[in-house]
Amino acid sequence: MKKFLILFFICSIQHVFSQTEEVKITPENLHNYKGEVIREEENQVYNTAGIEVRPEFPGGQQALELFLKENYKNQQKNLKGRVYVTFIIEKDGSLSDIKILRDIGYGTGAEAIRVLKKSPKWTPGKQNDKIVRVLYSMPITVN
């Protein structure tokens, strides 16, 4: 019985001191714990998963595959696999910060970087009706 009363007392205290006010996040009430206003940075990089309008290669996914197929030169004829790359699509549609995540060797990563630098400008992504920088990851199939 004592344990039940103690448990009831703890739950009652927790209920009394818990927050009951719902806080809606708006630009006016974005403050950190020090009371400073949190501002959205101009150069913030968004992930493709959480963005409203995703960036797109001119002509779509099929055009991107065709571009890669025509421009990627495989030095080793019998080499097959995938090269995983990540890059940032800037506000003007250009590509920057191209990195190789996984490579199959024999210069395939360097060739992927060369081809992506040669890429035409993409249609940039949008978040809250603003053009933003987007981090994009993709595999390049080597045949």
Largest sheet: 5 strands, mixed
The CATH class label is: Alpha Beta
| Corresponding CATH architecture | 2-Layer Sandwich
What is the helix fraction of residues, given as a range?
Answer: 25-40%
Strand share of the residues? 25-35%
Give the helix/strand class.
alpha+beta
Distance between the termini: 74 Å
| DSSP helical segment count | 3
Query: What is the overall silhouette?
Result: elongated
Q: Whole-number average pLDDT?
A: 83
Low-confidence stretches: none
What is the N-to-C succession of helices and strands?
A: HEHEEHEE
- Total strands: the figure is 5
Radius of gyration, CA atoms, in whole angstroms:
25 Å
What is the fold named in CATH at topology level?
TolA/TonB C-terminal domain
Question: How would you characterize this protein structure?
Answer:
It is a single chain. By secondary structure, the chain is an alpha+beta fold. It has one domain: TolA/TonB C-terminal domain (2-Layer Sandwich), CATH 3.30.2420. The chain is built from 3 helices and 5 strands, in the order H-E-H-E-E-H-E-E. It has helices at residues 2-17, 61-71, 108-117, and strands at 45-47, 81-89, 95-102, 125-127, 130-142. Strands 1, 2, 3, 4 and 5 form a 5-stranded mixed β-sheet that branches. 12% of the residues are buried. The model has no long low-confidence stretch (mean pLDDT 83).
